[in-house]
Structure formats: C-alpha cells, structure tokens
Recover the amino acids of this structure.
C-alpha cells in the first residue's frame, strides 16, 4: 500500500465514523499496524466528578484500534477488548496510540496506550481484530 492509501483510511475514519465525530475524536495518523487518534477533554467526555469518562477513554482506544487494524483498507472488526485504567484523566486532550503486536491471516492483536494532556499514561487496552477480507467502503478491492 502507498502512503496515499493510508491517508485514505485516515480520512475514511474521520468522515464515516459517526461515533468518533460525536465524541470529537480525530484520527491523526494511520500507517501499517499503527494509528494515532486524539480527543478533547471537555464536558461531553467527562463523568459526574469532572474526570475523563471511562467510556470516552475506551471509545478513543477503540477508534485508534480500528485505525490500526483497518490500515490496509480491509475490514477488521473488534472481537475482544480489555482495558486497564491507571490514572484519572484530568487534562486533555487525550491521545491514543495503537500498535499491532501480531497478525495472522484472520486475526490481529493490538495494544493501545492512552495518554492525557501531560503525556502521562492513563490506560492500556488490548484488543483482537477479525479480518473479514472485504474492503472498507470506497477503498479499492484487491
């Protein structure tokens, strides 16, 4: 794949992932087995005590995982995810970096690190993707 192909995947997520748009998440970078996404930490992303909501943190991790696992332009769907929270998110924006750990023909394993606005590790997510084989909408087949 060319860098233009990875840019098309990045733009696809920023355009078509309505949950990510609703949460203010932007996919910053997509390359082979890697993606980086950012989310503001404002009222909609906070819980009842003014900290980053666990669901918002997980949502950010899931979007970054989606970028890394779909980087080739082929549909990858999450089948297992776990997250460990290490610190409260007080300062934004929050950033998630997803890295591929292992990939076979049908499964891929990823680790996503989520950082606060001070670049302190807040959470780590482990996720597994199932590769369906078809292309993302708008991506060339093959």
């Amino acid at each position: 794949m060319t860098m233009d192909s990875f840019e098309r995947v990045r733009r696809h997520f920023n355009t078509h992932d309505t949950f990510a748009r609703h949460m203010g998440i932007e996919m910053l970078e997509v390359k082979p087995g890697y993606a980086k996404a950012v989310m503001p930490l404002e009222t909609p992303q906070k819980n009842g005590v003014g900290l980053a909501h666990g669901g918002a943190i997980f949502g950010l991790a899931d979007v970054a995982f989606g970028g890394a696992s779909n980087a080739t332009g082929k549909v990858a769907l999450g089948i297992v995810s776990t997250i460990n929270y290490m610190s409260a998110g007080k300062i934004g924006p929050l950033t998630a970096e997803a890295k591929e750990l292992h990939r076979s023909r049908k499964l891929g394993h990823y680790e996503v690190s989520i950082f606060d606005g001070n670049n302190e590790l807040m959470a780590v997510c482990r996720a597994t993707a199932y590769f369906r084989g078809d292309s993302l909408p708008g991506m060339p087949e093959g």
Remarks:
- The CA atoms of residues 80 and 128 lie 5 Å apart.
- The chain has three helices and six strands.
